[in-house]
Amino acid sequence: MSIVIKTKEELETMRRSCRLAADVLVMIADHIKPGVSTEELDRICHDFIIKNGAIPSCLNYKGYPKSICTSVNQVVCHGIPDAYRLREGDIINVDVTTFLDGFHGDNSKTYLVGKTSRAARDVVQAAEDAMWAGIRAVRAGGHFGDIGFAVQSFVEAKGFSVVREYGGHGIGRVFHEDPHVAHFGRKGSGPKLLPGMVFTVEPMVNQGKREVILLDDDWTVETDDGKLSAQFEHTIAVHEEGVEILTFPSTYTGSRFV
């Protein structure tokens, strides 16, 4: 395993790409409503990214045909935008990665479409809280297993399950770098967390069982039991003094450290 340690100069450049990725999620929120198709969302995000001098990292990545991923309801991750029109009560994860000035920035968010059920709201909230539990477990000198332990403990205490086949990843000049960031595991296990490491924390939380299936398109992943799945994601950087959230939007005025 070769984890890339970012320099101060590289981190400064990376912040711009990450903030743009976050700005995409802010921008697209107003467009997520009943009747809009997921390919319309893809087009809007694509145009916004290009207009801001970047390119969508997902487009043509290992053959992926679209600029963002849109994962609706039981789709866990990597849903391909198409003619499907959102319906009242759906949930949808929008996963956006931008490539700007030589660096990638990656984040995602699950949105509620119109009026949703309490069960849908609960799994979405659990996914967001699980991401923050994982991020708060990060500290220089700790271990990657601390992240997985924190996420898994939180999610299972809520009565949900964590997907194990997919997780976070290192990111920088390369879209997916070492290490793989598991969202389950043992505290104190795995590589040591060091200043300058940059990676994503992005737990996928299932309403039912953790098992998933890969569809015939070789991209779309769904829950095996057909129940809902939700996900949130930030790109973060490890510092001696704490953890920096790189994918807060450009309009965010609070502290970027947790």
Flag low-confidence runs. Answer: none
Tell me, briefly, the overall form.
globular
Estimate nothing, just give the exact number of structural domains: 1
- What is the CA-atom radius of gyration, in angstroms? 17 Å
CATH superfamily: Creatinase/methionine aminopeptidase superfamily
Alpha carbon gap, first and last residue: 27 Å
Q: Would you count the extended β strands for me?
A: 15
Q: Can you count the helices?
A: 4
Main sheet overview: 4 strands, antiparallel
Tell me the strand percentage band: 25-35%
What order do the SSEs take from the amino end to the carboxyl end, as H and E? HHEEEEEHHEEEEEEEEEE
Structure overview:
- The chain is 26% helix and 25% strand.
- Helix 1 (8-28) crosses helix 2 (38-51) and helix 3 packs antiparallel against helix 4.
- It has helices at residues 8-28, 38-51, 118-136, 144-157; strands at 55-56, 69-72, 75-77, 91-100, 103-112, 161-162, 168-170, 177-181, 198-201, 204-206, 212-214, 221-223, 229-231, 234-239, 242-245.
- The strands form 5 sheets. Strands 1, 2, 4 and 5 form a 4-stranded antiparallel sheet that branches. The protein has a 3-stranded antiparallel sheet with strand order 3-12-11, with no helix packed on it.
- It is globular, with a radius of gyration of 17 Å.
- With 258 residues, the chain is α+β, with helices and mostly antiparallel strands.
- The model has no long low-confidence stretch (mean pLDDT 98).
- The protein has 4 helices and 15 strands.
